[in-house]
Amino acid sequence: MTYLVADDLPNAPAGERFRALLARPGILQMPGAHNGQAGLQAKAAGFDALYLSGAAMTASMGIPDVGMITVDEVCFFIRQIARATGLPLLADGDTGYGEALNVMHMVRSFEDAGAAAVHIEDQLLPKKCGHLNDKKLADPHDMAAKIAAARKARRHLFIVARTDAAATEGIDGSVGRAKLFLEAGADAIFPEALTTAEMFKEVAARLPGVPLLANMTEFGRTPFFTASEFEAMGYKMVIWPVSSLRIANKAQAELYAALKRDGGTHSMVDRMQTRAELYATIGYHDYEALDASIVTTVIPQAMAQRS
């Protein structure tokens, strides 16, 4: 498949395709993809939807995840992943990039870039990764106003309300906020940084019938659980937000160390994606064939006559 011309390009809006995936039995598994190449590799592995993490995105830019980037910068990443893969993409919307009007602008921009879903969190700027300490929470009614604004602006985008309240307000605070956000128009809830299986189960029990998203990030506050374990606890979606970036960054660091040490890449070649593998992943020859079919020169057989 190429995103330029293909028989299997999706026609339905991305948000509708995302809802169709959620309507299937089982838990929707969304690995993080920090660029188009990662998205293609995840698709080749058999995943049906992807997640774009703000932490992975900003780290790939060489900056921390503290709410510094703009809507347009995020749309650059959304666009390349959506175009490359054609898969429904859940995008990290941070705190909505401002108040109600800013949230509405973000929603429309994300939709135009190709996103299927967005999650918006109830932190105050400067925001932090959900698994760090001393997060500052927004007033729940202010957050609910953002969710209502997102709902008003969206055409098809699936809206996930994230709450970071567990660390400071406990399960009661998380569930109370979640109910308020659902009343404001959220389609699903993302209870961030839960630390035990019991917490995950309690949130699910107190929000029956609500699609819930679990975050399985490494080196955070949540213990390792599998997708099937989250499903058994009552969750409909799971993300692995930064895993692809962590693997890629570790490999790159080892490459640069070897290059500096050895003066060449000979000791790392067997760990590299080959040219053939790269071309197969990005569909290089499909583009080549498409280009040739379009630009083949047609030579006139005779001088054109004056009319």
Detailed description of the structure:
- It is a single chain.
- The chain has 2 domains: 228 residues, TIM Barrel (Alpha-Beta Barrel); 46 residues, no CATH class.
- Strand 3, helix 5 and strand 4 form a beta-alpha-beta unit.
- The radius of gyration is 22 Å and the shape is globular.
- The chain is of the alpha/beta class.
- The strands form 2 sheets. Strands 2-3-4-5-6 form a 5-stranded parallel β-sheet. The protein has a 3-stranded parallel β-sheet with strand order 1-8-7.
- The mean pLDDT is 91.
Structure keywords:
single chain, 307 residues, alpha/beta, TIM Barrel, 2 domains, 5-stranded parallel β-sheet, 3-stranded parallel β-sheet, 47% helix, 11% strand, globular
What's the CATH H-level superfamily name of the largest domain? Phosphoenolpyruvate-binding domains
Indicate the overall shape.
globular
How do the strands of the widest beta sheet line up side by side? 2-3-4-5-6
N- and C-termini, Cα separation: 45 Å
Q: Calculate Rg over CA atoms.
A: 22 Å
Poorly predicted ranges (pLDDT <50, ≥5 residues)? none
At the first level of CATH, the class of the largest domain is Alpha Beta
Indicate the CATH topology of the largest domain: TIM Barrel
Described by strand count, sense and barrel closure, the largest sheet is: 5 strands, parallel
User: In sequence order, what are the helices and strands, one letter per element?
Assistant: HEHEHHEHEHEHEHEHEHHH
| Total beta strands | 8
**Tally of discrete structural domains:** 2
Structural class: alpha/beta
Please give the CATH architecture of the largest domain: Alpha-Beta Barrel
**Can you give the helix content as a percent range?**
40-55%
What percentage of amino acids are in beta strands?
5-15%
- Helical run tally: 12
